[in-house]
Structure formats: structure tokens, C-alpha cells
Amino acid sequence: MKYVVFGAGMMGSAVAYDLAMAGPGDEIVLTDISPDKAARAARAIGPTVTPLVLDVANDRLVRAALQDAVAAVSAVSYTVNVPLTRAAINARVPLVDLGGNNDIVLQQRAMHAEAQRRGVTIVPNTGLAPGLVNILAMTGFQELDAADAIHLRVGGLPLHPRPPLNYQIVFSPEGLLNEYVERATVLKDGRIEEVDSLTGLETIEFPPPFGTLEAFATSGGVSLLPELLAGKVGTLDYKTIRYPGHCEKFRTLLDLGFASSEPLQAGSSLRTHRELFIDLLGKKLDFREPDVVLLRATISGRKAGRPTTITYECIDHYNPQTAMTAMMRTTAFPSAVIARMLAQGIISSSGVLPPESCVPGDAMIAELARRSIVITKRIMETPS
């Protein structure tokens, strides 16, 4: 079987690695606009991965790459996911993408009827959050007879934090800033509302060596969950986990205008404060040290007449054997698993479908366990 992975960066190379390891006889085409990057990543993974120089903005080349593919994965910027979705629908090839922007997902959803007509499945937002945590939330929701509250907490952290922000860049600094600046979608009393990011600060406990951490509202993590669960769940929120003090320090920077679109003249160069800030974040927080991903999804309600709480939890670390960060593993591997589910017909519904509406949660948990990403599940019942 032939898979196509668009983008040979950290996430794309991790997707290609997982596809190659899970299907030793499969052909993996790893594309990138940079010949060196594609060739280097393919060579590091193995002989079943073929590098291909490709500009994803070139529709003709994209369609040629998709020929005879059983599934494709977009690990490039979300800004090109709409044309890639259109190309995949026209080629009748299932497509998975890492997503990251709700406006883009809504544009993809507008192609739902066309995808259904052509019998193609497009699954956006398949990374960690949105993605894996949404699948767990929906799996827990479906296990209860009625759900009252869903609380999702996720964070990618340096194993050894450095001041002043106790954080290191583990994905796009622009994406990080978007999460902190844009408003977060929640459910309150079953209705969709928006709240400011960097609000709702709370403490959260994880086993040693982490101990007491903080969590606060950020945008994008819930994707389409509020739309799917409005009127069915009273409370739904998503918060990002960080080391204590991070939220207040970052909010101070934003209050000082570091993310504003105000132009800043530097000699003959004109940039915005936001562009400069993104550049600084990428340079000053790129420590490239071991990281950890923490995840907790708590779904509360009733089952068989009893108050019941289902909790999913995951702590994943940097893997020195593969030199893959925890963020790469927990973002790329779920996407690769979903691509294989599409190719194998495990996911058979067509259209543009968020992962929480089509990915079997228990199967995903089992597949990730085979990759040493362990998700524990606890069920606590309170006698009536």
C-alpha cells in the first residue's frame, strides 16, 4: 500500500516513521519543498520511504503524488489544508491533517457533501489537541448514560524547565501565540460560549517529579467538540498545562503589546510587534532538550443510575532511541494510526469528519500502547 506524507519536518518525519514501522511492506512517499530535508528524513527512516520534492501549492504535482495512494497525511502548515483537501477529494484519496485552526476546519467542512458524494473521508485536527484528547473525550462521553462535565487538560513541557517562562518551543511559535491570543470555546450550561485565553487559572496535580502545575484556558484544543456536544453536556472546557507562574508572565508580555499588529520600524525593515515576538520565541525558547507531554481527560456524569467519572491520563517522554520528542510522538503517531484505519476500512464513513466523530477510541488507545504511549483509564463510581 502507498501512503503520502506532505511535509518532512518534525511531525511529518514522525508520521512517515510510524507508517513505515507499522507496515514494513508499505511504500511511504515523503514530500517536501526542500530536497535536502525530504532526502535526509527518508534516509533516516529506511528504504521503504521515498523522498519527493514537491510544493504543496502546485495542485498538479499534488494530484500526481496522490495517484494510487491508499491514504495521505498533511503535516504542513494548516494554511494549505483547504487546497490539499480539495485535491484529495478529487483524487478520491483519504486525507488526515494535523489541523490547528478552526476557521480552516470550517472551510474543509464546507466540502463535506462533495466528499460524501465521491466516497472520500477527510479527517482534520488529528494531532494531540485537537485530536487525541477529543477522541478520548468522546469515548468517555459515549460510555456514560448521561454526561454533566468534560474537562480536558493537556501540556507539552520541558522535562527540565528554564526560567523565566519554564517552557521550550515544541511546535510552531506562531501556533503557540495563536493559542494564547485567540478566544477559547467552551460549553456553559450546555451552550457554546467564548472566554479569553490565559484566564481560568487553576492548579493541577501530576505524579512526581511534576507535582503541582497550573492550567489555563487556551484556544483551539476542543475543535468541534462544543458543536457536537452542545445541549448534551453542561460543561466542557480545555486548558493548557504549564509550570507554575508561566501564565502570569506570558499575560504580562501580551498586556505590554508584544503580540500586537502595530508596525515596528527597524532601519529599512518594517515588521509588526507580533512578527518580532514570534521570531524571538522561536530563537530564545528553542532549547531542544528532553520534553514530556501530560494529558488528562475527565468525563463526569451518570451510568446505570450512579454518579460516575471516567478519567484518561497519559504521561509520555522524549524517546532517546528514536530521538523523537514526546510532542512528536503524541501528535504524529495518532495521525498515522488514523491514516492506517482509513486505508484498512476501519473508518468507513465518508465526508469531512472530525476525529471525535469517526475514530474508535479503544482501538486508538490499543494502537498507541503498541508504540509505548500508554493511556490509563480510571472509572470511579459513587453509590447513589
Strand content: 25-35%
Please outline the major beta sheet. 7 strands, parallel
How far apart the termini lie comes to 52 Å
CATH architecture of the largest domain: 2-Layer Sandwich
Approximate shape: globular
User: Count of helical segments?
Assistant: 13
Top-tier CATH class of the largest domain: Alpha Beta
Strand order of the largest sheet: 3-2-1-4-5-6-17
Q: Structural class from helices and strands?
A: alpha/beta
Question: How does this model look, in words?
Answer:
There is one protein chain. With 384 residues, the protein is an alpha/beta fold. It folds into 2 domains: 2-125, 3-Layer(aba) Sandwich (Rossmann fold); 132-326 and 369-381, Dihydrodipicolinate Reductase, domain 2, CATH 3.30.360. 35% of the residues lie in helices and 29% in strands. The chain is built from 13 helices and 18 strands. It has helices at 10-22, 35-45, 59-66, 81-91, 102-109, 112-118, 132-143, 173-181, 225-229, 246-255, 273-284, 326-343, 361-370; strands spanning 2-6, 27-32, 49-53, 71-74, 95-97, 121-123, 146-158, 184-188, 191-195, 202-206, 211-217, 235-242, 263-266, 269-272, 291-303, 306-317, 351-352, 375-381. α1 packs across α12 (326-343). The radius of gyration is 21 Å and the shape is globular. The model has no long low-confidence stretch (mean pLDDT 95).
